[in-house]
Design brief:
The protein has six helices and no strands. The protein has 167 residues and is mainly alpha-helical. The chain has one domain (3-159). Helix 1 (3-31) crosses helix 4, helix 4 (83-103) crosses helix 5 and helix 5 (119-130) runs antiparallel to helix 6 (136-159).
Length: 167
């Protein structure tokens, strides 16, 4: 396998898996109301001076716990592949995207191109690059693959009623 493809294969599928786990967790929260009742927004509904929420309702303690548990499981199963760090940073990318959308006044659930489907890959990828586990071409190709593939995946998840919105 080409070294660049091997590099991407060690990084991108895990990031996609962790990101999709948030969609599945959101689905579980809707199907099993007791989960939703025990899940709280990380920002505790705090508003900043701009009167917008810090992060919004989709960035929750439950989602954070899910990705950290996945990261711990991935790290235990495949030591040395940074799966715990990648998992935490996928969530940080999601939170950063939510923060940016709130500052822009984007309503909950509205799609923002290049942010909604790529924020988590950029944040985790920059970390991977910083520790020498990823190259800039790998990061760029991972981001481009993510923004190319994710709309179809989210549409399918919406069609299956796993996701509330198609994008």
């Amino acid at each position: 396998m080409h070294p660049l493809l091997a590099e991407i294969a060690r990084f991108l599928p895990w990031c996609w898996f962790v990101n999709m786990s948030l969609t599945v967790f959101g689905y579980a929260s809707r199907v099993f109301p007791w989960i939703g009742r025990h899940d709280w927004p990380l920002d505790a509904k705090m508003r900043l001076a701009d009167r917008h929420r810090l992060l919004g309702d989709s960035t929750t303690l439950g989602g954070l716990i899910v990705v950290l548990m996945l990261g711990a499981a991935g790290a235990a199963a495949w030591p040395g592949l940074h799966f715990f760090s990648y998992s935490a940073l996928v969530y940080a990318g999601h939170a950063l995207g939510s923060f940016a959308k709130r500052r822009l006044g984007v309503p909950r659930g509205a799609f923002v191109p290049f942010v909604d489907h790529g924020d988590y890959v950029i944040v985790a990828g920059v970390y991977a690059y910083a520790i020498g586990a990823f190259s800039l071409p790998g990061l760029l190709l991972s981001y481009l693959a993510t923004i190319a593939v994710t709309p179809a995946i989210t549409w399918a998840a919406h069609a299956l009623r796993i996701r509330e919105r198609a994008l």
